[in-house]
Every structure is written in structure tokens, then in C-alpha cells.
């Protein structure tokens, strides 16, 4: 039975490459045409493959419907939370998870620092979109025309002397974030708070969320916090793999990891 299931499942990636006839399916599986036909008929009955008028087979609509339903029912917060807790246990600092919704970036999960100094961020609260590390990651993933249009209509509050001051500077920073694959907020929102963030990606490679570690200067310096970047990126990669159900390539080795 397990061999039959394995063979049937092996047909799906073949048809993902394009329509194939019975002979092509049999050759790819290394089985007789009669065996391939039985498998195809079973998949056809369940809507996973469709037989075209030219007698070739392609993926069926049922497969796409199930995939869409699965994606819609995925809860990135539920998947990410155990990883956020584990990261918090390792480093002790505040850990956030954020998403981009309707031109706002919102915190959807938070694990508090174990140190006495706490952050005032709250789940459901929008972040400071022009300076927050998670916001930079999520906005950097937008197509270039969308990034530019959004940047042009944002306000740029001067929270601190390190705050991003205009659309030109913001777009340049987003380009850097997009290229390097991670982001920071080093005193841009609050002089005493630093943050490093990494992306959580879906199966298509696009960002579905961003996670971060934040800490005040009185607990760790900015340099010490940046030293946690490899750990933060590995955590984000683990969430991405679980969320997408695919083997997401690990982040490139960070220079701090090699030091």
C-alpha cells in the first residue's frame, strides 16, 4: 500500500511540469502502463488530476482548491509562537512577530523580556512604520512601484535623531534591507531601544510576517544585540519551513556568525 501511495504522489510533481500522457507517466514511475492507468484513474476520481481531450493528464482543480484552503487556514502566529518562546528562552530579550495589513504593520505576538526593563509594545498595536525593523522588512518585500507609492505618502516623524527623515532615505534603506535580507532599528524610535529583525516567508518566497528581538541599551549594547542576528535568522527560517511546508534555504551566513 505504501508503494502505491508513493507512486501516486510521484505523479503530481510530474504533472506540475505540464500535461503528460499515459506513456510518459508510466516511464517516469518505472511501471507498466496498466499500473499507471490505475493510479491516474484513482487520482482523477478524487479530482487531483484531469484527463484532457488529447488524452493527456494535468493537475486537477481539486488539488488547487485544497492548497488554497490550506493556505487560508494557516495561522502564522500559532506556528511561530513556540519558536518565539524558544528564542526568548535563549536570549532573554523581547521577541515580536508582526504582519503587514492595509498599509499598517501590526504586532500579532509578543514574548516579554525576562529583564526588569520592559517595552511598551502591545499585540494589535501598529508599529512606527518608518523606523521599526519589522516594518522595513515587510515593506521592502513589496514590488517596487508599491514601495515607492507608499513611501511618498507616509509621514516621517522625528522620533529621535536617528529616525528616517524622508521618502528618499526610506526607499534607500528598504533597498538595502531587501538586498541583505534582515533589518535593524538602532535607536530610530527610542534612543535607548535597539532591534534586529528577520523575515518569515511562505512557500512562494514572499514575506508573510517578520520577527524581531529588541532590547534596551541598559541591558545590552547595539553591538551585542547584532551578535544575535544569526540566531534570529535561524529562528525565522525554522518558522518559514514549518509555515510553508517546504525546505526553505537557510539564511546566508552572517559575518557576525563567522567572527
From TrEMBL:
GO molecular function: DNA binding; DNA-binding transcription factor activity
An individual GO BP term: glycerol metabolic process
InterPro entries from the UniProt entry: GAF-like_dom_sf (IPR029016), HTH_MetabolicPath_Reg (IPR050707), Tscrpt_reg_IclR_C (IPR014757), Tscrpt_reg_IclR_N (IPR005471), WH-like_DNA-bd_sf (IPR036388), WH_DNA-bd_sf (IPR036390)
Span of domain IclR-ED: 62-245
Keywords assigned: Activator, DNA-binding, Glycerol metabolism, Transcription, Transcription regulation
Matching Pfam families: HTH_IclR (PF09339), IclR_C (PF01614)
Highest taxon listed in the record's lineage: Bacteria
Keyword Membrane recorded: no
Entry keyword annotation includes Signal: no
Chain ranges of the HTH iclR-type domain: 2-61
Function: May be an activator protein for the gylABX operon.
Protein name per the record: Glycerol operon regulatory protein
Amino acid at each position: 500500500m505504501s508503494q502505491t501511495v508513493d507512486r501516486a504522489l510521484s505523479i503530481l510533481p510530474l504533472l506540475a511540469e505540464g500535461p503528460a500522457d499515459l506513456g510518459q507517466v508510466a516511464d517516469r514511475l518505472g511501471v507498466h502502463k496498466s499500473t499507471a492507468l490505475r493510479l491516474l484513474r484513482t487520482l482523477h476520481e478524487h479530482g487531483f488530476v484531469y484527463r484532457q481531450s488529447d488524452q493527456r493528464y494535468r493537475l486537477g482543480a481539486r488539488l488547487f482548491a485544497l492548497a488554497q484552503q490550506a493556505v487560508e487556514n494557516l495561522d502564522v502566529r500559532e506556528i511561530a509562537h513556540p519558536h518565539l518562546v524558544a528564542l526568548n528562552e535563549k536570549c532573554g530579550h523581547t521577541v515580536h512577530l508582526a504582519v503587514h495589513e492595509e498599509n499598517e504593520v501590526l504586532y500579532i505576538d509578543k514574548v516579554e523580556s525576562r529583564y526588569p526593563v520592559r517595552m511598551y509594545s502591545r499585540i494589535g498595536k501598529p508599529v512606527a512604520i518608518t523606523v521599526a525593523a519589522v516594518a522595513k522588512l515587510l515593506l521592502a518585500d513589496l514590488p517596487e512601484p508599491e514601495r515607492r507609492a507608499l513611501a511618498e505618502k507616509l509621514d516621517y516623524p522625528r522620533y529621535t535623531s536617528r529616525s528616517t527623515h524622508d521618502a528618499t532615505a526610506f526607499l534607500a534603506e528598504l533597498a538595502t534591507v531587501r538586498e541583505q535580507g534582515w533589518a535593524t532599528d538602532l535607536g530610530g524610535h527610542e534612543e535607548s531601544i535597539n532591534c534586529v529583525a528577520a523575515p518569515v516567508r511562505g512557500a512562494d518566497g514572499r514575506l508573510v510576517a517578520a520577527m524581531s528581538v529588541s532590547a534596551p541599551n541598559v541591558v545590552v549594547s547595539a553591538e551585542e544585540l547584532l551578535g544575535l542576528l544569526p540566531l534570529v535568522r535561524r529562528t525565522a527560517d525554522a518558522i518559514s519551513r514549518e509555515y510553508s511546508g517546504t525546505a526553505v534555504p537557510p539564511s546566508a551566513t552572517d559575518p557576525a556568525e563567522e567572527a
